[in-house]
Design goal:
With 293 residues, the chain is mainly α. The chain has 12 helices and no strands.
Amino acid sequence: MTASPLAAISAGSLPDSSETTATSAPVSISSSPRSPRQHIPLWSRAWMKGAGGFIVPLVILAAWHFVTATGRVPPYRLPSPWSVVETGAEMVSGGQLWLHIAISLQRVFIGFVAGSLIALAFAAIVGLSRVGAILFAPTLVALRAVPSLAWVPLLILWLQVGEESKITLIAIGAFFPVYTTVADALRHVDPHLVEAGRTFGLRGWSLFRTIQLPAVIPSVVSGLRLALAQAWLFLVAAELLGASMGLGWMLNDSQQTGRVDRILLAIVLLALLGTITNAILVIFEKAVLKRWM
């Protein structure tokens, strides 16, 4: 198998035209007895890693059931877990819950993709160009400090109360984790690798594709995972912009009507959806790292 250019440059093993082929002497390999199977610690086993993640949620669920079943917390403050399940089943049978989930997923997906793509473009400009860093970096650092809710009045004035304002707010939330992570990674690519690539005639796109992009792939994936989590956080703020559907609207509406069971249902669903979408990105991360690293 042919080694990748980045690996070859890192190891300093790119072939030189002046090298001559030499016949290697035979090497004798002595057989050694098979080593005994190493003991794998319990917490390092794959099945334990998966099962261990359910321990804390189950403890929380048990404590929740205990305080509600014993009457330590009144139902109007904290309904029982079974009451929340019944509320979810009722909304599923009425077809409302799936609609709330679908609308929120659509808003998060569009905002996340749009914000991430724009962030990757700005990260490339700032991370690869000194002029771009001088022009854009200070402004983007200042905008990053603006709280999410501060954008709400401006987006309502500019884009009215519609899908555009909600998706734009989610895109703003997804933008900064990707931009910050990738731009910083591009600025800190090993200069020796870049210089070695240039000595072998790599310039522009070929240098970026061969040297710089593989070096920042882990940072890109990490930035995307942070951006996805931020997109779910901004969803709740976005669905306060005059929304009539969605999990964020469901939280606000349930608070006004005093439906604590629906509030808890929305929180649980947001946690589950965030976990599932993060797991999808983890699978994507493994595939990308296997391809590039």
